[in-house]
Write a structure and sequence with these properties.
The protein contains 1 helix and 29 strands. Strand 4 (49-58) and strand 5 form a beta hairpin. Strands 3, 4, 5, 6, 27, 28 and 29 form a 7-stranded antiparallel sheet that branches. Strands 7-8-9-10 form a 4-stranded antiparallel sheet, with no helix packed on it. The protein is mostly beta strands.
């Protein structure tokens, strides 16, 4: 049980012409929500469902009210709310059959859910948090990575079929984490990244290293494969994003650097046609980019949200984005502010290719 932090504050009441002091009162800061943070936002492959995981952070910095919400992708209505309390759900991935999705959490568990939010199974796979999941639609396998820096590959029944301890096999004596991973759409490669700032492309059969992108970022990075598997969009700890030609995974080439955000880029996603890229940033905007020339097509503001943390583009052309809302801990809103918005994507660029 955590210690309760109590602060004695002066409560004031606004009056016409000035303020009146009502008196001193002890306030439990754990009862006040300071911000709402989205952790994962993922469309189902057919665009009919959308899953959002989020968590509230109280004035002491503790996580509260962790939950997973399943939305109707057409109407935007909530189908199910899965309360996880203080267990933070970090990653979400859909089975390509559209009938189920998987979550990973800070307790090292993977949970399997129906597409309407019913728990099917849960599996303890690591003593530490699992930060990212990815599904290989070609082999029907699930990859997981996290704080213990072990890559794990499971079959459709979450039985372990392969694993690689990066701390002992590739970097003896070097401690890092696996922050991000993603299978290529053709199922042949697995891209991974960790706290050392490199993105590495691996063979799916034995997880052997093919190559690293020829940039070492300042911190952990992430990204998304284009639907044809020939290009990879990446982001770092800075304000820019990149598009790489990975048609030859052993010799990736930087094609474009996407510049325009005024704060850190946190998420990135491709349009279904592969002609546009959307980025989410701590500057409070979504930017839509022409993937051929790197020009900005549109800037989307998220009303009343200071930072946009998640963006995902559905197969049907809808863009969903979720922002982090910071609130005054002493004057919390009566209900959680809007975290999620779904909107039609802008028209493709005329010169898209």
């Amino acid at each position: 049980m955590r210690n309760m932090f109590v602060l004695s504050v002066i409560i004031v009441m606004t009056l016409i012409g000035g303020f009146a002091v009502i008196g001193a009162q002890d306030v439990d800061l754990s009862q006040f929500i300071q911000k709402y943070r989205p952790n994962a936002l993922v469309w189902s492959p057919n665009g009919e469902r959308l899953v959002l995981s989020s968590v509230a952070v109280d004035a002491e910095g503790y996580f509260r009210n962790s939950k997973v919400e399943v939305f109707n992708g057409i109407t935007g209505q909530i189908i199910a709310t899965i309360q996880q309390d203080t267990v933070v759900v970090i990653s979400v991935v859909w089975n390509p059959n559209n009938q189920e999705f998987f979550t990973s959490d800070a307790q090292g568990k993977i949970k399997r859910w129906t597409n309407d939010g019913q728990l099917l199974n849960e599996y303890s796979v690591s003593p530490l948090a699992i930060l990212r999941l990815s599904w290989n639609a070609q082999s029907n396998q699930l990859a997981a990575g996290g704080y213990d820096n072990v890559l794990r590959v499971f079959d459709a029944n979450i039985q372990l079929v392969n694993s690689l301890d990066l701390g002992t096999s590739e970097y003896p004596g070097f401690t890092t984490v696996t922050d991000w991973l993603a299978y290529s759409p053709n199922g042949l490669y697995l891209a991974t990244s960790g706290a050392d700032g490199y993105i590495r492309i691996r063979d799916v059969d034995n997880l052997a290293l093919h190559t690293s992108l020829p940039i070492q970022y300042e911190k952990a990075v992430g990204g998304e494969w284009r639907s044809d598997g020939l290009a990879l969009a990446t982001l770092s700890n800075g304000n820019d994003a990149q598009i790489w030609n990975v048609s030859n995974p052993q010799n990736p080439q930087l094609l474009l650097t996407l510049q325009g955000h005024t704060a850190r880029v946190i998420d990135i996603t491709w349009s279904p046609q592969g002609d546009r890229v959307a980025t989410a940033s701590q500057d409070g905007t979504i930017r839509i980019w022409n993937a051929s020339n790197g020009q900005t097509i549109e800037v989307i503001e998220f009303e009343a949200v200071r930072e946009v943390w998640r963006v995902d583009w559905s197969s049907t052309g809808q863009i969903a984005y979720a922002g982090m809302v910071t609130v005054d801990p002493f004057y919390p809103p009566p209900t959680p502010p809007l975290l999620l918005k779904i909107s039609p994507a802008p028209a493709p660029p005329e010169s898209a290719g």
